[in-house]
Design brief:
With about 300 residues, the protein is an alpha+beta fold. It is built from 7 helices and 13 strands. It is globular and about 45 Å long.
Length: about 300
């Protein structure tokens, strides 16, 4: 809906709003008032008045975009949204704003363990990939936190491939010392692991194993320390949450579904670019699928 409105208004010569907010100018307000009062010769042409009225109606109407009608659905409550794309094709991605989630009546699935806290933004990725080995080998790859230094993603702001993190590793606790990366055998339901990432600053995360069978692994993560961008706080503790579902979908075929959300503790600087969320999700998917993480083209430019 936001994209449609923007294109429609730009096509009609109006550029008085950004991607997130509509701001009418004082001149427009004055003109609109004069046009709506009785006057045999309106000061503002009728087409402009109609455009303004139509724009207001669209703002007040329910969101008709795909993101609002297709609710975020993880692979534990029926067919997932977005749906898995076949192996060899780019994964499907989608991003939902708080407004879209609210208007669609979306509630977080119980299997996400997200509770009832408010969601400012949510994103999800789903795709299949070929892998001949057992789940243990994929689990090892998933919790090899020290290997995140080798993952690259497409930076929208720099328009270049960049390291996802400059340093990373496993910790023996939220305030603990470094330790070896976990082994697959350690991933038992209910167990948690701590790791750190260094990007704009250092942040500590907790990964918790939610499910584990021979053909399915579900883990959730959240930040346990603030995530900073320079001197600013992008995410308060617990404000960035994610869940990964790894499922065997056939002989040598695996499904990867990851959803991530920003909660009330996320600041405005963390909500500026949908593409940044998509590209980070795509980088982690490629890492798990054994695809070069800087392979062209990126998921979003």
């Amino acid at each position: 809906m936001r994209l449609f409105l923007k294109l429609w208004m730009l096509g009609n010569g109006d550029q008085c709003f950004s991607n997130q907010h509509f701001e009418s100018t004082a001149a427009d307000q004055k003109s609109g008032s004069a046009a709506l009062s009785w006057n045999p010769r309106p000061a503002v042409p009728l087409p402009k008045v109609l455009r303004l009225l139509f724009f207001i109606v669209l703002l007040l109407a329910p969101d008709l975009s795909d993101g609002a009608s297709a609710k975020l659905t993880p692979p534990c409550e029926g067919p997932p949204v977005p749906a898995y794309t076949p192996a060899g094709q780019p994964p499907a991605t989608d991003v939902w704003s708080r407004g879209e989630l609210t208007r669609s009546g979306w509630q977080a699935a119980t299997c996400l363990n997200w509770g009832t806290s408010s969601t400012k933004l949510a994103a999800a990725l789903a795709g299949e990939f070929r892998f001949a080995g057992p789940l243990d080998d994929l689990a090892d790859r998933l919790v090899r936190f020290s290997a995140l230094k080798s993952v690259r993603y497409w930076s929208v702001s720099r328009q270049a491939w960049q390291p996802l993190v400059s340093d990373s590793g496993t910790l023996d606790g939220p305030d603990g010392k470094g330790r070896a990366d976990p082994a697959a055998a350690e991933l038992t339901p209910g167990r948690s692991f701590y790791y750190f990432e260094v990007s704009h600053g250092r942040a500590v995360y907790r990964m918790t194993v939610r499910e584990r069978t021979a053909e399915r692994l579900v883990v959730s993560t959240e930040n346990v320390t603030p995530i900073h961008v320079g001197i600013l706080t992008a995410f308060e503790p617990g404000a960035l949450q994610s869940v990964i579902f790894l499922d065997k979908r056939g002989p040598g075929l695996w499904g990867y579904y990851q959803t991530i959300r920003a909660t009330e503790g996320a600041s405005v600087i963390a909500l500026g670019s949908d593409a940044s969320y998509v590209n980070r999700l795509a980088a982690l998917y490629r890492h798990m699928a054994g695809i070069p993480t800087d392979q062209e083209p990126p998921a979003a430019r």
